[in-house]
Amino acid sequence: MREQILTIIDTNGKLSEISLGQYQKQKLVLGRDESICDIVMTDAIVSKIQGTMLLENGRLMYQDEDSRNGTFLGLGSGRRLLAKQDGMVEVYDKDILCIGNLQQSRNRVLLLYSVSEKREVWKWKPLSREVITIGRDSSNDICLPGPGISRVHCRIGSIQGACVLEDSGSVNGVLVNGERVTGRRKLQDKDVIQILGFQLLFCQNGIYYKTAPEGISLQVRDVTKEVGKGSKKKRILNHVSCEIEGNEFVAIIGGSGAGKTTLMNAISGFEPDFAGKVYCNGTDLVEHFQMLKNMIGFVPQQDIIYENLTLKKMLYYAAKIRMPKDTRASEIEKRILEVLQMVDLVEHQKTYIRKLSGGQKKRASIAVELLADPKLFFLDEPTSGLDPGTEKNLMISLKKLARQQNKTIIMVTHTTANLHLCDKIIFMGPGGRFCFCGNVEEAKAFYQTDDLVNIYNMIAEDPEACERKYRNARQREKNSGTAGERKPIPVKRSKNARFQQFLVLAQRYGELMFHDTQRLLVLLLQPCLIAALLYVVADKDIFKIYESTKSMLFALSCSGIWIGLFNSIQEICKERTIVKREYMANLRLPGYVMSKFVFQFALGGIQAAALTMIFLGLIGKKRAGIFFNNFTMEMFLTVWLTVLAAIALGFVLSAMVRSGDKAMAAAPFVLIIQLLFSGILFQLKGAGKLISYFTVSRWSVEALGSIAKLNRLDLKLQKDYPMLEHEAEAFFKAAKGHVVQCWGILLLMTVVCLVVSMISLRRIAKDRR
Ligand SMILES: Nc1ncnc2c1ncn2[C@@H]1O[C@H](COP(=O)(O)OP(=O)(O)OP(=O)(O)O)[C@@H](O)[C@H]1O
């Protein structure tokens, strides 16, 4: 049973908590006068009749009754002074009403409204010591459990007589009165401190707090989204306003293209490009997304798991990326076991993910998201593709999660079979029309039908009328917000944390590579086979005759480019859904790309060595190089640099496209450019010559030709006409400086391509499912 609770902190810092249900009345009067008021506050700053509260269908409305000191809704910069002429204003779960002088904090009375299933008494921690600490570890003065809380999250101490809160470099940050604390902030009496799902009250040199985080509530106010420009402009979300309370299990339903996913992406903060406001426990979600995102879990439609890892290993790497960096190995181990129990997959922890069934994979994706203990959980069609039994079990598990793990769960679904398990359903109609929000029974009563499927049909027939009917029925004032400029507050991370994440990513990628033995074998065998094939077609006069040597070196260079491109072209796009989800959490893209590149660097080295050594070994000709007596080392280095540049080029393509198929379709085009503009097949002039400067093949062949001293080799015709002149080409100038220049350019291309791939991967945040 959900209770509507009002916590009152008077001017002296005394806290009292009342259940609004105890009055068994719809209308409650608040004020100083005992003879008239239901909720009596004896502070002098409170008027005889301060305001009126209206309780209706689990909702709370408030009206200020022309009080002397007024009532503010909210603290901090987003607060609003309520006046009688505003009429009844809805107060949402975790909203704060404030009576009194905002400048003189002692002259304030706070009213905290919350809706909760179970009630926990407020604890009190006096600031008796110089500094008190708040964090996850039990050694803190205030211990707040939860994997998202840092071991020591923040400190409160006194500096020159003032009380100061200092964020101890926590991952998920601290809000005071809805504003992010960067470094230190002076605390004032009755400031509200928020750390993830925990609310703490600073009062008269002490702190009130609760150790169980409460479910996160969500207020969606007038969310509207338009796409396209000019005549192609269309509205895909139309003034959606609704409330979701803490620990509710909510389904967004509606026909195909009704805007369900668009709504979920907006209210989860993952696509902030909309008009209107979304408040998460009273805090602007878009404005504070960087800080709130760690309270939010998001399971996209595609699974966010790696097929070639065991379930436990997958969870281990996800935990290393998502949980605070000070989490101990034993804590990670414990948390993995906890989430496996939550999703009923303990016995499958050692199973490779590729061997799990569809339903189990969905649970595995949910487990990944549960690791960081998100309090607000979004799932996009989690039941799609599941059989009816598995679907029902999953819905029951989600309901259990909402109830037992204090989570607010919002899911998009098409099916109506198990919606009775949800606390609320949100019906969307074509054009993003908001056609209903309430429980299943209310929906049936509202649309006068026994079957939810009929509601689908009614909405599809006339969405506008359904939207109007529901809007009129709600009869409440819309709080329309304008989409102001939103600048997410960047969360600074230390270089050390970035490096640690890079190590975890590299370890995960290494493991994925080694577990995919078939692919690894293909990648390693490929250069050996190509070397053998090159030997088969090689002329016996190679390294003696100019033409045969030149074409063979060109083939060698192209082989290197192909090998590199094939290594990397699918590496990013094939895991795009996972990367997007991790990027929205904590993933650093440079670390991600580099974690792949370090392994590709080594793999490319082995491949280049195999290709060059086997080919030159089979040819059996030893020649002096530019730097050493034997040119093999120099040839190998050139091929390696060629492979690396091609790997980086592959990363660029892979970061730009959204699927492996598209990447493979683009590969021939890239190869053709390398062939045509290398300057070997055709004499290039003008634009062609200019393009050749940007191809890997040109610099690769130039270096190989210089090392092989092409200019000093005889032309074919010179066999018969020894007097024929062979003009030296600047292209193949056999000089140290020239070779180093070519190597340098190949290296530079690699670096530039890596940077471009990191930058273009940032667009991943805008990916739709
Ligand atoms: N960025 C965009 N540009 C243009 N149109 C868009 C964009 N995003 C969504 N739409 C359109 O908005 C409508 C709603 O899309 P959305 O994916 O939210 O629907 P849905 O209800 O989740 O559909 P389904 O059940 O089929 O997945 C669709 O017609 C879609 O084509």
TrEMBL record:
Subcellular location: Membrane
Keywords: ATP-binding, Membrane, Nucleotide-binding, RNA-binding, Transmembrane, Transmembrane helix, Transport
SUPFAM superfamilies (UniProt xref): P-loop containing nucleoside triphosphate hydrolases, SMAD/FHA domain
Major subcellular location class: membrane
Statement: the UniProt record of this protein carries the keyword Lipid metabolism: no
A GO molecular-function descriptor: RNA binding
Alphabetized InterPro entries for the sequence: AAA+_ATPase (IPR003593), ABC2_TM (IPR013525), ABC_transporter-like_ATP-bd (IPR003439), ABC_transporter-like_CS (IPR017871), ABCG_transporters (IPR050352), FHA_dom (IPR000253), P-loop_NTPase (IPR027417), SMAD_FHA_dom_sf (IPR008984)
Name this polypeptide is given: ATP-binding cassette domain-containing protein
